[in-house]
Each structure stands twice: as structure tokens, then as C-alpha cells.
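Reminder to self: C-alpha cells first, then the designed residues, so the page reads top to bottom the way the pipeline ran.
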């Protein structure tokens, strides 16, 4: 049903540093970029998840949830560990 999802971020460079590593653990990579934009997926130019820099971006509210497909449980654990190491927070272990 969904073609792609974009999230607004205040600091694109910082967010990309997190998602480059965390999504890399799941087999995804940065496949497109432009000023204020970075897209992730598996095919060049065909992002499925994107970050858009917006100076007034706010954190998503309670109940928001975004899940990425992972090839294995080990990949999930690696994603979680890498994300936490880069400063992300969670609301529970995977």
C-alpha cells in the first residue's frame, strides 16, 4: 500500500550519520540525495524511506511507530545496537 515514507529532521547530517549505519545493518543504503534530503532503499534513485531537513521539525508523538523489514533476527539486534550507539533512544529492546 505504501510507496515511501519521509520523516522531517532538524539536523540532516546528524540523522544521516545514524541512519547510514543503522539501516546499513538491515541491508539498506542511501540511494538518493539532494540539498536537505536523503533517501534510503536498495536501488539507486528509488528511495523507500527519506529524511527531509526542516528547521521547525518536531519529534513524532506518542503512539507513532515505524518498522523496517529485516533479513534476520541478528540484523534486528545489530540495527538496535548501532542506533543506540549513535544516540537514538528506544522504548524497549527488540
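Designed residues (94 positions):
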Amino acid at each position: 500500500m505504501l510507496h515511501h515514507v519521509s520523516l522531517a529532521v532538524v539536523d540532516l547530517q546528524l540523522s544521516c550519520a545514524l541512519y547510514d549505519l543503522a539501516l546499513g545493518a538491515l541491508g539498506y543504503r542511501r540511494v538518493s540525495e539532494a540539498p536537505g534530503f536523503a533517501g534510503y532503499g536498495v536501488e539507486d534513485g528509488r528511495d523507500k524511506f527519506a529524511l527531509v531537513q526542516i528547521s521547525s521539525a518536531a519529534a513524532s508523538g506518542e503512539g507513532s511507530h515505524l518498522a523496517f523489514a529485516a533479513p534476520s533476527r541478528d540484523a534486528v539486534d545489530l540495527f538496535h545496537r548501532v542506533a543506540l550507539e549513535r544516540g537514538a533512544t528506544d522504548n524497549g529492546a527488540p
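The longest helix spans residues 12-24.
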